[in-house]
Amino acid sequence: MCVGVPAKVILKKEYSAVVDVMGSQTTVGIIFVPEVELGDFVIVHAGQAMSIVDESYARQSVEEWRRLIDARNSEAVK
Amino acid sequence: MCVGVPAKVILKKEYSAVVDVMGSQTTVGIIFVPEVELGDFVIVHAGQAMSIVDESYARQSVEEWRRLIDARNSEAVK
Amino acid sequence: MLEILKQSSNPEICRPLAEAVIEIALEFNRKFGRKPAFMEVCGSHTMSLARTGVKQVLKNEVNLISGPGCPVCVTDQRSIDAMIALAEGENRIICTFGDMMRVPGSAKTLLDSKIAGKDIRVLYSPVDAVRVAEENPDKEVIFLGVGFETTIPILTLMIGEAEKRMIGNFSIWMTTKLVEPVLRFLLDAGEVNLDGFLLPGHVSIVLGEESYQYLVDEYQISGVITGFETAELLSGIYKSIELALSGQAAISNNHPAIVSKTGNQVIHQWLDKYLTNCDEAWRGIGVIPNSGLDLKPEYDQFNAKKRFTVDVGEPRKTKCRCGEVIRGLIAPNECPLFGKACHPINPVGPCMVSAEGSCAAYYQYMRESF
Amino acid sequence: MLEILKQSSNPEICRPLAEAVIEIALEFNRKFGRKPAFMEVCGSHTMSLARTGVKQVLKNEVNLISGPGCPVCVTDQRSIDAMIALAEGENRIICTFGDMMRVPGSAKTLLDSKIAGKDIRVLYSPVDAVRVAEENPDKEVIFLGVGFETTIPILTLMIGEAEKRMIGNFSIWMTTKLVEPVLRFLLDAGEVNLDGFLLPGHVSIVLGEESYQYLVDEYQISGVITGFETAELLSGIYKSIELALSGQAAISNNHPAIVSKTGNQVIHQWLDKYLTNCDEAWRGIGVIPNSGLDLKPEYDQFNAKKRFTVDVGEPRKTKCRCGEVIRGLIAPNECPLFGKACHPINPVGPCMVSAEGSCAAYYQYMRESF
Amino acid sequence: MEKYISLAHGDGGELSHRLIRDVFIEAFGDGNAAMFDAASVAISASKIAVTTDSFVIKPIFFPEGSIGKLAVAGTVNDLAVSGAKPVYLTCGFVIEEGFPIADLRRIVTDMANEARKTGVKIVAGDTKVVERGCADGVYINTTGIGVYEANIGCSLEFEEGDAIIVSGTIGDHGIAVLAARGELGITVPITSDCASLNRMLEMVLQHTEGVRIMRDPTRGGLATTLVEIAEDFNLTMKINELDLPVKKEVHGVCDLLGFDPLYIANEGKAIIVVAANEKDKVIDLLREFPEGKDAVVIGSIIGKDKGQLLLETPLGSKRLLTRLSGTMFPRIC
Amino acid sequence: MEKYISLAHGDGGELSHRLIRDVFIEAFGDGNAAMFDAASVAISASKIAVTTDSFVIKPIFFPEGSIGKLAVAGTVNDLAVSGAKPVYLTCGFVIEEGFPIADLRRIVTDMANEARKTGVKIVAGDTKVVERGCADGVYINTTGIGVYEANIGCSLEFEEGDAIIVSGTIGDHGIAVLAARGELGITVPITSDCASLNRMLEMVLQHTEGVRIMRDPTRGGLATTLVEIAEDFNLTMKINELDLPVKKEVHGVCDLLGFDPLYIANEGKAIIVVAANEKDKVIDLLREFPEGKDAVVIGSIIGKDKGQLLLETPLGSKRLLTRLSGTMFPRIC
Ligand code: SF4
Ligand code: SF4
Ligand SMILES: [Mg+2]
Ligand SMILES: [Mg+2]
Ligand SMILES: [Mg+2]
Ligand SMILES: [Mg+2]
Ligand SMILES: [Mg+2]
Ligand SMILES: [Mg+2]
Ligand SMILES: [Mg+2]
Ligand SMILES: [Mg+2]
Ligand SMILES: [Mg+2]
Ligand SMILES: [Mg+2]
Q: Whole-angstrom Cα distance, residue E297 to residue E166?
């Protein structure tokens, strides 16, 4: 019962994968994300990968945050 | 696997008896000595009374030892 | 990519973001003469908002209300008592998530039973319960299946595993909950006035963005799918205020990197295979029809409720106000027991002990002094 | 009566009695030009003679030879190995008398198995084994039934108890020995020259005085039934020398207070009911026909040898000379390993570890220096 | 407060804090000690005695004693027989999950009482909790610090003829504890001799000269302790079986079970080796204390060459005694 | 010699004697100690520090450490953070029947090595053996005695503005040990920080003034230890989340398992509260030692009234930290 943790797939087996979480490794189930590939980041919940992180969307989110900040800064400048 | 210990019967039940061994009490089986009576001394082996001590014979034995000693002493005196 | 993901807790992003949220919240206030009010549906959101400080930083400008999203907290007392009674049986191994251990039953807790010698095991990875069953063929191994949509799929995996390995001594005591029925209940009851919902990122992985459309269509209320890191929380709240300001109800996916439009279809297949809707009793609410999932009858052999009967009496009455906390009617510190008779070492209600409980979140992460 | 019984260890009686024995022994010596030689048949006699100092006090005047009367010591190696192998099985509780624990098997001891985690229990009261079985219905409880006539009746009591209480998971691994066959073996072999036997008091409780008549009738050798306290031992030896001096073979009951003419008839009934003669293998001797008692076939359910099979290989060969010690051919300290490679902490043979073993008696009670 | 010990009582957090506050400080009194990683205490000697013992006795409560009383008395006695005056004690608890806190309180109270009686201060403590099945109730380590007073102590200058004294009947503790376990089905009207001997032994050291060594014959019993002395100092010692003080009930139980009182643990007895001409004075001094009322001379040093202990039997023969060897006594200390 | 510990190794008889001779004296060197009930040692101070701890860690061997190393370092550290120079140690073993003697040797060797490195002498010991299932391998109690040197120590004179320093990254020990248990299925490239800090801390005390207090944040972690200080001395302390030194791998494991590094045990770290103007000097001194290379200031004393510890989040909000409360960490010390 914890929020998902992003983990990088470094070894893929049939139903499980070894993932790296900031330098520590553990094995997670990948039954729910059969399409996962080596190098992908997955969201792990209670030992199972639930979703594959979409890098471009992740990047978009960060850009959006920056835009919000910049907008405010430029507003502040105004 | 130890030599029998003489114990005094202080409480008799159907198949067992509480016996006193120099002030300590324990329960022993009396199936092998059904005729045992309160106050009797029994020889206990591995938790079972195996035999009832015959007081007159016990007394006889002691007397015999004394006779042996006395005989020798009187001989020595001679 | 780790670099990108890390940005979500980068203070150089988070601090100005928080200021941006405050600014737009003030704008809302100027426009409507009150703070915008959102309910975080999910207990993990409650915890994250408290732990990261987002809730405190925004406390004067945004009204963040905790909703019925802590699975342990919403489980009704009779159900809690039943699970504890279950553990009393002979020759059983109870496997559970850690935060069930200290949840107060009417007479005792699972931890009390464990201390008294019952074999109750906290698992980090629930699927291990099947292995426990395999390793202890002469014991009945029962997993306490408490959870929302994020956890339920994992329960089906366990059944699948037990089925495949033909393990006869494994079962799950199902007491699961679904988000949609309880949101509908809250909206139908109309007890809380909200400008929108913060929708949980991980539940949404399963459900998908489109599944929330009923909020807009039937209740004209917005929902923003939000992650759990500081910047994700802040931007989710920002978007919620933006929507509220716009006057338009909409579902917005603020967590697109992991949440898709239609959810995880593989998981849907697993759920469909093993589970069927059932009525569930909610703490402080009562039974909500079709608000949970139970095993289909063909899997009765894995259904602990079918295999074991437990006797539970009438639940003990306490002064705990978890029911109201869950429905968002009061904040934890409005409960007179909060921090006095009730604290994490000696919790009176489940909200003080679950890792996602509102009272626990408040006690652990939101007190600035005492 | 306790006062009377206590006299048997009263030094004011014992010391002069020892002198009387020495005196009559010297008389024997004067007459025959050698020390009188007696065999104490029983291991308990060996221990008592050593512990009380009787053996030392008489060592120059009387030749006291230990016989084959330690039940653990006379058990052949294959049988020891079998009992240890038995303990290796899963789901068993082995109950035993304490002195089996350190008896060296070819590869290990029962103590090694216990240390490695096997459930092996030393019982003070063997009948408790039946209770252990009752309390552990899902385990097989096996008692290691090692013993002579004094102990065998107690084994039958256990069977009776298990029968009465219908306990299905209890059995005895019978490996018992009888006094008469081995005495006949020794006498037939003619290896030791004896002036008589010290016959064991407690075995005689069961057998009775008359049972030894074959010694006189068939072998023209005397036997004196003797107790275990100092005065009893001394007077028994005294009587033995007296008989030897008289030139007449006879059985003398020097322990009449507890030993009757015909033995304990109740015990005989128990033995008859459950047991039947069987061949037994003796250490250093080999199989002696009808030298032991086994359960009758109708009690196979309580017969561990019928219920369990154990694999034992060829016993390991050692330099241990227990076989000769048992037959009275050498004294313990004539074994080259005595006190060096072999001592109670690290016994090479059973004679060094059993509570009735000759080597143990010698090591513990007869060394005056080292 | 909780009724039973849980793992959380040992994790160093809030429950540990409360346990220390409500049970240990409550009994031992000194709240300050809990504030630091180490206690800071005054010491008035340039030589100190240090000893440690762990107590794993079963049962933890027994006639006239408990693991708590024993843990204090045992360590106090190790200091006292060394000729030191016991001043400070530490205690380390290893507790099994599920242990009743009421029992813990009783134990801690026994410790506090015994400490008060003997005049030692318990200055530091520690508590660990292990999972159910990883201990048997509670184990206690106590470590003691004593100070040597000038001109008082044991000389270690043994002479032939030195008397061997034991301060009372042997085997009481071991037999009382074995009986209290209930497994043997024996009822014994014997209580443990568990007692702190520091006052009595201090008196002996202060008022006599010629004490060579003192020891407490605990685990392994009188014989084992004397063998250790004989070997360590290369002495030939002889004790007389007829002189050994053994209660008749202890004798009876030993006969029944095949034990030898010489190897049974004592927890309130001292062995004192003293110059022959001082032995009566030592006996007189000992007998002034209830713990020493049965003190007797049991033997003497008969040589200074062999490192052996001999027992003279009632028949007058002698035999070598060795250490307790491999019998499996249950936990009695 | 036997391969496994049996009950007889703890009965005080011949096997106990041999175990002491062949394992303990062999490693610790001083045979004389075994001859007496207490060790007699010289002491050169009128004030000594005394501390005790039992070690029940599972597993007993872990990356860069063992229960033996830990038992010495842990007690040495309690003395060192108290400002004392560790001089003597006692050790009490409770061993489970069946424990491999080879493992015991390894543990005892680790203890001897760590003692040699830190300059303490192990002067007394005790061994008890309990039945299989009554312990989990081996438990060790160590009790330490330290001496205070004149004019050196902690002042306890706290001031607003005093800096809070931690000598390195937090959580390493707890995470390394948890991973080494194997139950979590996690591989962590982290080793325990288990180390004796006495040389380093002695240097700090000798070369700086204004050290108020030192503590080692073991069980309960950094947060619990700081809460204890705050409450005991009625201080308001604040630490900054962004300044906490946490290895990324420790962070990752905590995220995965829902742990908080603030509450995870350390076994080679010190907290030092020091006057603000001395903090850089302390940091410089610490960083001269490998054990102190990651030393940083993590917060400060912001008041002297409330007895509270606050954490400032990256967003700038503050929240109260409490002691570790009732989470069930497995045995890691
Ligand atoms: S503070 Fe405690 S009693 Fe009050 S609502 Fe929360 S859990 Fe219930
Ligand atoms: S001394 Fe040892 S090796 Fe020799 S005969 Fe006796 S038991 Fe066998
Ligand atoms: Mg510390
Ligand atoms: Mg000691
Ligand atoms: Mg001691
Ligand atoms: Mg401690
Ligand atoms: Mg237990
Ligand atoms: Mg001692
Ligand atoms: Mg300490
Ligand atoms: Mg410590
Ligand atoms: Mg000791
Ligand atoms: Mg174990």
A: 6
